[in-house]
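Lab channel / #folding
Pinned by the channel admin:
"Please post every new chain as: sequence first, then the structure tokens as a reply. Keep commentary short and put observations after the output so the thread stays searchable."

First post following the new format, from NK:
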Amino acid sequence: MASTQVFIKKVGPVGGSGGVMKDMNINGINRIVKISVRHGSVIDGLIVRFLHDNGEESTEVWGGDGGQLAEFNLKDSEYITSVKGHYSNFYGKTLLTSLEFETNMRCFGPYGSEGKIPFELPAISGQIIGFYGLSGSYLDALGVYVKTKEKGLEDANKELLLSREYKSNITSHVLIGVACLGIALIVFKIIKV
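Reply from TO:
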């Protein structure tokens, strides 16, 4: 019986460079079950609850306990496909100011307030199984761990760049990332004939 190879990719982080490093140990994580976001003018804090081989666990609060609390639970077959938002200068520090979570079924947020610089951390044909970032009194920066059965985007980009040398190519694979408001990303895999 053939086994399917799984890739874990780190995407990001986006935001500022302050705070201390926060990271989830993704070994044995099956899925994220709940997200708690504290928010106001910025993203004050984040807590992630996840299903692990040994049961459910939660991260500590990444950031502070200010702002209002928003929480959402994911259904058993639901997983996060994208995290997007904004970051901006807030009293001399670059912080995340808004977050929005997209799943394979629905969207949650946006939480916080729109900042100057938008970002998106897409799962691209996979699912987000964990987070890492920087935090102090607020959530300074955020990155994601993506579990996928596809090659990483860097490998796809490398193949696309190399394929430009050939005069006769065909498209063998089209990957379309669909966001809540439309198509977010299209990747074409080109092979030599």
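NK: The first helix runs from residue 153 to 163.
TO: also worth noting, The first strand starts at residue 7 and ends at 15.
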